[in-house]
Structures
1.
Amino acid sequence: MNSERDQWSSRLGFILSSTGAAIGLGAIWKFPYMTGMNGGGAFFLLFIAFTVIIGLPLLISEFIIGRGAQKEAISAFKKLAPESGWSIIGRLGVFGSFVLMSFYSVVGGWVLIYSALSIPGLIIKDNANYEQLFGMITGNPLITILGLGLFLIINIVVITFGIKGGIEKASKILMPLLFIFFIVLVIRSVTFEGASEGLRFFLQPDFSKITGESVLYALGQSFFSLAVGFSVMVTYSSYLGKDVSLPFSAGSVSIMNIFVSLLAGLAIFPVVFSFGLEPTAGPGLLFMVLPEAFAQMPFGEIFLGLFLLLFLFAILTSSFSMLEIITSAFTANKQRSRKKVAWIAGLIVFIAGIPAALSSSTLANFKIFNLTVFDASDFLVSNILLPGGCLLIALFIGFKMDKTLMRREFNASNNLSPNMYQLWFQIMRWLVPITIVIVFLGSLGIL
């Protein structure tokens, strides 16, 4: 895809592709275990609040910056604020996407392996120990590195051929199917004996379990699940025509993201409590619970195989956006081949991802601040780089970007009240940066 000429073919294609970029692991994989480890319902409410009050305005901001500049992340800030240091936001986005993809692709590899195993029915078996299966897969260096490599190859191939004809067309079919299969899983999940206890854990808030760290995690989760902070949506919206309402598109992406997070919780926690599993199981929660649920369903092997393939697609659409921001940053001047840059970037991500892939095996005892490489990378992205990127974007919108251009992009192709622009702008100028700083300082025990 040429980053300056290509356009999304339709508003629906842009919304579904952006939703795919946003949902990915954030809503389906990370949200359930973060909720389980941070008190359940109270965390969910915090996540919704942060998504609506902070995440949505930030998403609109990235859309405005990208379409306003019609450039990829780094070039966009250079164009909108020439001869200044604001391009650091785009550079931070490229670096953050690189770190994120290095461990994100490890999980993508796990899903790829599970998808392959589910096709011949190797996962669902009578009296199977799914926790042991997950440990066997993640604890085998060769399997995890193979999964990492295959996952990245898929990403590289798609990026070299562009995303307009591939991701957009597929998103229109596979994203709705993902919703349908999720709903099927939820219906089955809530009918298990003992499911009500899981529903109470997820939907009944207990704020006594919320700490300053939990609030930071909820804020980071809202950023992670909407893909804001790393200028990924700046790059995506740079391919967007002027006939699309940015607030409407951002609202649609945010609503679908919250809905998928709700479905993930409703699908996971009833099963967790019905089968006596631990909601604090961590990153492996989804991989141990899903097979357990499908094993109880008629034609469970077929459902699990289809769902894992759709889950894999959701992860891929998200990872495509990360590799796209990296690739587009180094092909913006057209002097480098997109194909060559994509393969080089993918190879570097593969090498950087190996330590995270070995975090459950060879490097299990290697710790960074008492965290494995995988967990340390996750913490760096979710709790430092993403909030930092969001803070800088808020400051750029509030104090640097041209107000006339912002108003024009915000109001294009919609009938919103003029007061909506002012509300969004004041939220971005004051509420968003102040909230990010307060939550971050609070997590450090300074406030």
Note: The chain is about 75% helix and 0% strand.
2.
Amino acid sequence: MNSVKALAESPDLSCIPSIYINSANSTEPPASDLQDAIPTIDFSLLTSDNPKLRSQVIQELYFACKDWGFFRVINHSVTESLMNMVIEKSKEFFDLRDEEKKEFEENGVLDPIRYGTSFNSKKDEIFYWRDYLKIIVHPEFNCPNKPLGLREVLLEYSKRTREVVKGLLSGISTSLGLDQCYVEKALKLESGLQILVANLYPPCPQPELAIGFPPHSDHGLLTLLINNGVGGLQIKHKGKWVNVNNDLPNSFLVNTADQLEIFSNGKFKSVEHRAIVNNAVTRLSVVVANGPSLDAVVEPAYKLVTEERCPSAYNPMKYKEYLEMQQGNQIIGKTCLDRVRV
């Protein structure tokens, strides 16, 4: 396995190897800038003592999940200094010598720590302009022993982001007409899987030919994203690709994922997104994917299913099986989710 970082730093690199050329780029229309404002959720209002304010933000959360599958979260419990340290320590990991990082080369999709390139380098026909570090941080916390301070920063960050996710899912549960703890109990969130992924997208000499990460939806419930201020994220909104930048200080970009689509019986669609690259600066993003417990069987909430008006649109599947199915194959749009549709 050769890292994209090492390739990008080659002194004579003027064009990319053919394995990185994504032919779909030539047929894709260019992404546009957003015409509508991305919904912004004030997290502090979800715990407000004022029932009117809480009801209002729950309605906003319902709209964000139903019409966008994507929103910003502000006024949460994670400090800006901690978020900055997560980015900095992730950068320090990628700056380690290759022999130090290769200690964590992936073998299986549920390895507690995985370092690699592309998506599934053993099966990808086209490689993506991306290196990654994936760490399972809950229900058991794992972390590389380098660089110094990474473990402490990620341990605190994983705890704080779980609090944010728990609050958001409580509001989402209420917005669906369910008890506020319904999602938490039904999907065993106390032992829910949380994976932290640091993505490195180095400068690419031919960005129009490569892609950082292809169109896909995420496997879990909610994904939280921060980055180093460099753009490159695109989402599919109303059938068209649009550029998204996290330009609000101390905010998360949050997207809905496949298990939430299944659980909501299709009311909330998981959103397709992708990462593009540029030829000037490195983009670094850190995402935290939050899912059910691995042994939870995910299916539409029974209160959202009626035989006549709203039959179940998805077959039940254990989350671990879904995760292995998606992560163990090539990633193409929402094809994995299509396999569990009725």
Note: The longest helix spans residues 150-175.
3.
Amino acid sequence: MTLAAAGQPVAAEGRWWSRLALATLALAALAFMISLAVSIGEIPIPLATTAKAVANRIFGASFELSRIHEGIVWDYRLSRALLAASCGAALALSGAILQALLRNPLAEPYVLGISAGASTGAVAVMILGLGYGVLTLSGGAFLGAVLAFVLVSALAAGAGGGADRIILAGVAGSQLFTALTSYIVTTSANAEQARGVMFWLLGSLAGVRWPDVYLAAPVALAGFAVAMFHARALDAFTFGVDAAAALGIAVNRVRTILLGATALMTAAMVSIVGSIGFVGLVIPHAARFVVGPAHGRLLPASALIGALFMVTADIVSRIIVPQQILPIGVVTALFGAPAFAIILYKARRPV
């Protein structure tokens, strides 16, 4: 046995332990940030009180707590933090999937026109009253997002398919639904409705409750499962459609499944929290710097970093301006744009 051969098992074992340690550290950091998000607010709540409130509700413990504190922890802040984590994970996963499928480092969830469609659906319910009594704002946004994805997919298929056609169809769909939204707001909205639409379009976690978490978390988990099942296919797609087909991958079927999963995750998140940019664009690039390009590692890393980023952004949105909560989309853009500039600078290649 050569020295190199003898060292291979040890190296593999070292890599396994290092990945486990990194994953454990990331999960611990996420748990801590969620706890911190629950504790920070207009009424500060100690971490110990947060832990007791969760123990009382989940494990049936009997710690004596103020009803106000327990209500704030359970009914408002914890649901908000968990939704932020679910949203960040889903958007980051969607970005990682699209960047592989479309072979475009600038691809992100909103390239499919989903965000613009969701905006139109939400505005149609809020201002025009379509589906009043049946559809909520989130329900209208979800239907608009699905409609946008169907139209963009049909346009891309009619144009011959392919990654470039999908991107072009997404740009066209985004412009169409953005124009529809602007038309409705301009012609039918009063000043108060226009402000409400603008706040929603910037992204907001205000008013989030447990039913929203019960939708967002399973969708994010399902999307993660689908993506991980196709991790090797995504590795192949990064080398092109021909390379993926040569490896025996059913290109059209796999691409349809993954695009559908991306559309579902994005539509669900946008329908709940509004448009939040840069998460799906920046986080996958950051994850590649940490774990490399292999999707078996990239997808979990993107989900964890995305969840951490969104929970942190939510905390910042509540403390950066005294006695005022910024739309979370503003915070993600303020941090995401410089971060993406740094990533581009680090990834530059000499000519």
Note: Residues 44-70 form one domain.
4.
Amino acid sequence: MKHWEQQWIDYQPNDFEIAYDRWLQQGFHQMNPRKRKKLFRQMDQILFHIHAYLQGAAFQNEARERILVSGRIFDRSIVEIAHMKQLTVDQLTYIAQQHVAKGKVYSLAQGGLTGTGGYLLLGADFPLMVVLNLRAVQLIGLTFGHEVNHPYEMMLSLKLFHVATLPKRLQKQGWDALKQELTHYSSPFMYEGTDDLTDEKWFEQPMKQCLKSLSIFMFRKKWIQGLPVISMAIGATLNYRLTRQVTEFALRFYQYRYLIEEENFRYV
């Protein structure tokens, strides 16, 4: 885990990233504070609604059952999500990686379809990417034995999604904040922290999505053997990279949480 955290220590932002950060911050600071707060609150509400939708969806319930079935391969006494904690971290990682692999395939396919350049698909690209990646975070959390429909786990998974989608140069602070969240845990039915999620730093991700859509739009008429191959490759590659970034971050976090909880239990 320390080796994985080393990536942030070794990472050095380039001049363009530094200039972009300043430009973005200046842009938001020039906004009316009330309007800025309202914008962030609306984005937070969208994420809350997507989380609620996923929890009530039939495909999410089916995924829960598949997780339990996978868990019973290693331990036949598993009958509910909390029992997944009885497995070793390697076993849980193996099961989670099955969902990670599927999530990457879904993002790849969705990005390829978006790359065909249809206006409907371009407009739905960002919401679908939020859904796919938030669902991936939730499935990893479920695999490690955490019911993400409980208040504490819900907020933790949403904050984890938020940090996982940040640029690498901004993730270290978010990672430390997530580790700090674990020290405030008292009950899965109570959350004592703030419910703020998005901020000006997170808006780089929507900006990247806009640039991706623009690139797809520009190359949508460059057909090779009857397909807009270039724009499809742009959509598929960028969506795949985002899902890989999110799922790797989420998997590392829940591995860290498992090890911390196991260490605390050992000394109780």
Note: The first helix runs from residue 2 to 10.
